[in-house]
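W.,

You were right to be curious about this one. When I first looked at the sequence I had no strong expectations either way, so I just let the prediction run and decided to look at it fresh. Below is the sequence, 143 residues in total, followed by the output.
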Amino acid sequence: MQKRGKPPLLISGDFIQVDVNSASDVRNFGNWGTVFTQDLYILCYLISEILDDIGNLEEFTRLVARQAPVGAKFLFVERRESQWEDKIKDLAANSGMALEEFRYSQGNMDADEQMSDLGEILDDVGRKPRVTWDALYCVGTKQ
């Protein structure tokens, strides 16, 4: 197997992987250091993926929002279903965020994009990627 190279772009030196299903990970958030100096937090398909343990996600969102600087942006991306829109509204209201209007996006993968372009990633995942999407997104601002 060939070694993977370094990615060409470092998105954030403060990226932190946290298991929002783990109460101890959520409660130890205070040890995350400079993550709370960031002005953009992205919650991408998180709500629909952990619906069975939404309590920890609610606590996680409140704690992160409490520590984030005023004016910080929270980008929520989810499947386009009313239940996820409603949950985003609840999370924002309980975390001191003002929500902008929801926006929607749906479409198909561009014809010039090929699965083979994914190379080893496609092999590692072991299944074909989706070629269509129907999503909603919304930005919350910490007050």
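Here's what jumped out at me. The first strand starts at residue 40 and ends at 44. And, maybe more interesting for your project: The chain has a mean pLDDT of 83.

Coffee later to discuss?

I.
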